[in-house]
From TrEMBL:
GO terms for molecular function: 2-methylcitrate dehydratase activity. It is an enzyme of class 4 (lyase). This is 2-methylcitrate dehydratase. The lineage of its organism: Bacteria, Pseudomonadati, Pseudomonadota, Alphaproteobacteria, Acetobacterales. Belongs to the PrpD family.
Amino acid sequence: MKLHPVKVHPSKALLPREEQLAWKMAGVAVDKVGVERDVQEMIINRIIDNASVAIAAINRRPVVSARGMALGHAKKERGAQVFGVRSGTTVSPEWAAWANGTAVRELDMHDTFLAADYSHPGDNIPPILAVAQAMGKSGRDLIRGIATGYELHVDLVRAICLHEHKVDHIAHLCPAAAAGIGTLLGLRQEVIYQSIQQALHTSISFRQSRKGEISSWKAFAPAHAGKLAVEAVDRCMRGEGAPSPIYEGEDSVIAWVLAGRSNRQDVYGPVYYHVPLPEPGEPKRAIMATYTKEHSAEYQSQALIDLAFRMREHITDFEDIEKITIHTSHHTHYVIGTGANDPQKMDPKASRETLDHSIMYIFAVALQDGRWHHVDSYAPKRAGRPDTVRLWHKIETKEDPEWTRKYHSKDPDELAFGGRVEILFKDGRKLVDELGVANAHPNGARPFARPQYIQKFRTLTEGILSAREANRFLEVVQDLPRLKAGELGALNVALPAGALLESKPGIF
């Protein structure tokens, strides 16, 4: 990997495109280096993972709405599949990316990567797969495209913090997905370069989508980025250009939205970011640094859910608890903890989207129940239970510099996203325990491998898919490298006739 300095340049400098981050990213996308075997296998795992959570969410309202919108854009030639819908119906690929991306994101239960910023790199898969189906590509083409999407997404997240500037993390997803589509289609570096720039330009939005009363837009936002990526590539394939240089220009994203804005008096001086990118011929391995979720909740809660399961074994009566303090990282405290200062995070009538961003609620329920379920644990009746509300309101978070340091560690063996929990009982006793990574994490007690991904798929789709359809999908997806051009429609997962809910009418 090579670190590339990125800073703002005045227009009169005429920064050569070869020195621009978007051009360098496009260079990674066109590099024909092979995809290594373990990376290929992990890509298959993540396609299984996406299908699991998408089907589990298939009849939730945001997913039904997104599907209804997509079905309003039916397309027989160069069409793509929509999760749940039988193979005879295809839609325009950008709308398939929208519908499938929403389904994947709705339960907040697919893969994650945390570094300078947050990300769910599995959000790259729906737009790249949709274009692959529409354009009749092969399994190997799809694998190469997904490897690029993951690589560039993770590389951006390692270097550029969007959160501190209140920018939503889809601003890293959209350029990565556009580059992944470029690799999939074998496009020229010039076309991918323009696509990356258009994708970033159109995908800047703000973190109010994850603040206060969190709405269904939390699921729609990554799907929207995927849709924008498909559209950006389409325009650039037709010869259109983009605002340039999108990262380094004097009125660019860095200059006015990210780090450059905080230092306008010397805007052309400092280097703001160092972005790591693979050297030519270096394999794209970033997917191996990512990790999926065992529990349907914000990633920073994964280890704390597992810790709650462990600590509850030493508690006989939850009413004996006086106070619970979670000592954790800056991100956990300020995003899903009491440091967010969001009263909605303590409200039993809050939306599901809000509750899965409240570690106070999550820890209380996990402590009481000893299990976590993607539906039951968020049910209004469960959230409103008086004893749960009492316990929930006894929980606070505190930032601990050591946990913040571990959260940002460059050492993968030290990297940690959990915390230390102190439970104070009314009689003065204390119960203290800590956990750095979730059990399912690669460094955890029970790391996820192919059997766990398959079990997650079977658990989440049980009672929704027929056994025959579930078995068919699992057989096909594990044979992905051998799927020929035009055969990727087999990666769709269809529900039995009549099982899909219809959305309310809209414009489309």
